[in-house]
Write the structure tokens for this entry.
Amino acid sequence: MTVALTGGIGSGKSTVSALFAALDVPVIDADQIARRVAEPGGAAYPAMVALLGADAVGADGCIRRDHARKLVFRDDALRRRLEQIVHPIVRDEIGKAMGQIDDPYCIVSIPLLLETGSAGEFDRILVVDLPEDEQIARTARRDGTGAEDVRNIMLRQADRATRIKAAHDIVDNSGEPGELHARVQQLHGKYLHLARQLSDNAGPGAQDSG
Ligand code: ATP
């Protein structure tokens, strides 16, 4: 069973992913994959360099992420073209990674799940939810990003109501970090149970039993 984990900037996706990983649940991280395919030798690298130009490549051959971010920040068409290069490759890599998993279920952390129209590719959607003011405060505390920049990113992400509507399950992360453990444990039990049901329904004889 595949569980897509999503949420807005600073909502706590990485924190929740780490709690599932600590329970030995396999976690596939779309952001990590996106970084890997953009490295020299990665599947997206040649097309990204062709699009962004030689200035975007540092002395070590790596694409300078800060430079790329600045370029797409002020050029929406460029951002879309970059996404058209990166998203299908990331989607493909996620599919391959999911195909290699033997466990009852896996978590796929995918920040832009709804924005990229990928929701239908997963069995369940788990949303980490946080009031927007708190998203801004926590992102600032984490890495010093200014409120204005966080708001600009949030404008390009699905809004809170849209995410909640799409969710099968929600983690409310407005409390203390310690409260997340119990909620993740509870979801883990639920997902193991659902995964067992799914595999029973798909197993031999499932069609015979109607
Ligand atoms: P992004 O989309 O920007 O990568 P994210 O959704 O992965 O962010 P995290 O990095 O997990 O979010 O969390 C954002 C920040 O908030 C981190 O510094 C994290 O340690 C902190 N944080 C997470 N949960 C809580 C909580 N319940 N209370 C306070 N701080 C928290």
